[in-house]
Amino acid sequence: MRFRQHICDLPTYEVGKPLELVMRDYNIAPADIIKLGSNENPFGVAPLAKQAIHDNAHLAYMYPDDSYYELKESLGQKYGVQSEHIIIGSGSDQIIEFCVHALCDEMAKVLMAQTTFAMYAIYAKHCNATIIRTKDFTHNLISMLHYYKEYKPNIIFLCTPNNPLGEALPKVAVMEFLQQIDNDCLVVLDCAYMEYCAYKDSSYAITPKEIIELPNVIYLGTFSKIYGLGGMRVGYGIGNNKLIAMLHKMRPPFNITTLSLKAANASLFDEQFLLQSLRNNFAEMDRYKCFANQYSLEILESYANFVTFLLHNKLNSTKIGTLLLQRGIVVRDLASYGLNAIRITIGTPQQNEVVIQNLIDIITNIRD
Ligand SMILES: *Cc1c(COP(=O)(O)O)cnc(C)c1O
């Protein structure tokens, strides 16, 4: 058996540590673990979604309606677009996969920011495509445009807000950028955290309706973050109907489970849960900012549901990550991104209190 060489060379994606692993490694009971490494909603599953899973459990024996009619109708209503503008994926990750696999071969080039969501590069490597990154620390549309003109990539990824750094792009700047890109290059707007960003500052809010006339732009959203359904694996892409029709050729039948569809659909209507999540996120983010100020830590301005600390001097992200784990706290060490930094998902007030107390304890110990 011989695997293709570029597949052998692929590193395996490192996700936030799953609960089971933490429990086994450190002998900590699940109820005592504070899991803030994967940007999940700390309030869990939206109550309406939980109800829908319960109410529809008896349908799990059946294949889902493969047109995903109900969910597309609801998303269409929410965003003011038609079903033909929407594709549903097993997480928006799967839509990224469809885009890259549909457009890239070993001659292809994919342009992205220096530090951004790891899956873009992983899918590009599946195809042995060339990955081009801008040199700036965060998204910079001016250099992005320079690189675009120089390399003529097949795909450009813009992640706004960006995971794992938290910055976002003003809507006007993105719309102007899109005008400069020819139709033969696909621009993927990964908006996994857009709900948070739009709540914080509406001038950063990009809506899919504004891009569906463009033939070469896709907007990606997910139910994994604010909707609290990471375990159900549902995401979506919205774009021009011709682009969406092409991507549908990549989609395996029944890629979303019956219960995931029901849960995702119900979560869209749980406005109380969404509002509570947004309010908590930014009130609690302020606590992390105060803490950073008090302890002279560098914290990045975030438009998402996490904060990223850039560490200096004696503070090492892997060391701190491990010390937190021993105390049952999971955060994301960004060493695999080549950074001495940790990313912490904003938790509930109680969780954040524990995290901050432990961080204070750990860093004062290291600094002394
Ligand atoms: C979480 C995340 C996604 C998608 O997650 P799914 O669970 O696959 O929907 C996509 N992009 C970014 C930047 C993310 O952080």
Report on this model:
By secondary structure, the protein is an alpha/beta fold. The protein has helices spanning 5-8, 19-26, 47-55, 69-79, 92-103, 118-126, 141-151, 171-179, 194-200, 241-248, 258-267, 271-294, 317-326, 349-367, and strands at residues 34-35, 86-89, 109-112, 130-133, 155-159, 186-190, 217-222, 235-239, 298-299, 306-310, 329-330, 332-333, 341-345. The chain contains 14 helices and 13 strands. Helix 6 links the parallel strand 3 (109-112) and strand 4 (130-133). The longest helix is centred in the C-terminal third of the chain and has 24 residues, at 271-294. The chain is globular and about 60 Å long. Residues 39, 91-93, 117, 159, 163, 190, 192, 222, 224-225, 230, 235 line the site of pyridoxal-5'-phosphate (PLP).
Summarize the topology.
Blueprint: H1 5-8, H2 19-26, E1 34-35, H3 47-55, H4 69-79, E2 86-89, H5 92-103, E3 109-112, H6 118-126, E4 130-133, H7 141-151, E5 155-159, H8 171-179, E6 186-190, H9 194-200, E7 217-222, E8 235-239, H10 241-248, H11 258-267, H12 271-294, E9 298-299, E10 306-310, H13 317-326, E11 329-330, E12 332-333, E13 341-345, H14 349-367
Parallel strand pairs: 1-11, 3-4, 3-5, 5-6, 6-7
Antiparallel strand pairs: 2-8, 7-8, 9-10, 10-13, 12-13
Helix pairs in contact: 3-11, 4-11, 5-6
Pyridoxal-5'-phosphate binds at residues 39, 91-93, 117, 159, 163, 190, 192, 222, 224-225, 230, 235.
